[in-house]
Design brief:
2 domains; Glu_synth_asu_C; Pectate Lyase C-like; single chain; alpha/beta; eleven-stranded mixed sheet
């Protein structure tokens, strides 16, 4: 494992250093003293686990394509912005607009998130182990959002496609427009329990409901459907 001291590097130099370590074949990279730096892990491509011993600022893991990024503290707004593939694990809380426009990969937030989590998602998984704010899943076009705690008002507002699983008993009173609840299907429950097992999340899919866009009374949309291939190291 290689260790980088973020406090001794300029913001741009930190990401360059991480990329250089990955290019040289380092599989484990530890970033110490991050000081809530913005843009950490942006546009990283390849195979490696980057562990950040502390909190980060805005745009953590933006455009991530392959690596596993573990944040031991909190993250600011826009975590995983336009993420393509890989993993982001936030051990504490994430700010607003977590996982905006993600295309693939998995983001797990062990704590809470701010509002608009999963805004405009196109693919991938966002798992929020705590609670989330207003407009979770707004205008999603694909992917899956899972919330174990409470949700805010406007849940799933204007979803086009995608899926939201929640177990908040008051969730039906907080729905946005053009969405509806259904019992979780057997296939959805099986997939969800596999996700819980993979990330050591203490929950059972049978406790959840599935939120989907309404299938009638809506306009028809042609959506962007990219083909994502696994990045080469």
């Amino acid at each position: 494992m290689v260790t980088l001291d973020a406090s001794a590097l300029a913001k741009r130099e930190l990401n360059k250093k991480i990329k250089s370590c990955m290019a040289s074949g380092e599989a484990e990279i530890l970033v110490e003293h991050p000081g809530s730096v913005h843009n950490l892990g942006t546009a990283l491509k390849g195979e490696a686990t980057i562990t950040v011993d502390g909190s980060t600022g805005f745009y953590t893991g933006g455009f991530l394509e392959g690596p596993r990024l573990v944040i031991k503290g909190n993250t600011g707004w826009y975590t995983g912005d336009n993420m393509l593939c890989g993993e982001i694990i936030v051990e504490k809380n994430a700010g607003s607009n977590c996982a905006p426009s993600t295309i693939g990969g998995t983001i797990v937030v062990r704590g809470n998130t701010g509002g608009r989590a999963g805004l405009g998602m196109k693919g991938g998984d966002l798992v929020i182990c705590g609670s989330t704010g207003r407009w979770c899943g707004q205008m999603t076009m694909g992917g899956r959002i899972v919330v174990l705690g409470e949700v805010g008002q406007g849940l799933g507002e204007s979803m086009y496609r995608g899926l939201i699983h929640v177990r908040d008993p008051q969730a039906e009173e907080k729905l946005g427009g053009n969405v509806e609840f259904h019992p979780i299907s057997e296939q959805e429950a099986e997939s969800l329990n596999m996700l819980f097992e993979k990330y050591a999340i203490d929950a059972d899919a049978s406790e959840f409901m599935s939120l989907r866009p309404m299938t009638s009374g809506r306009h028809h949309y042609t959506l962007f459907n990219p083909k994502i291939e696994k990045a080469e190291a």
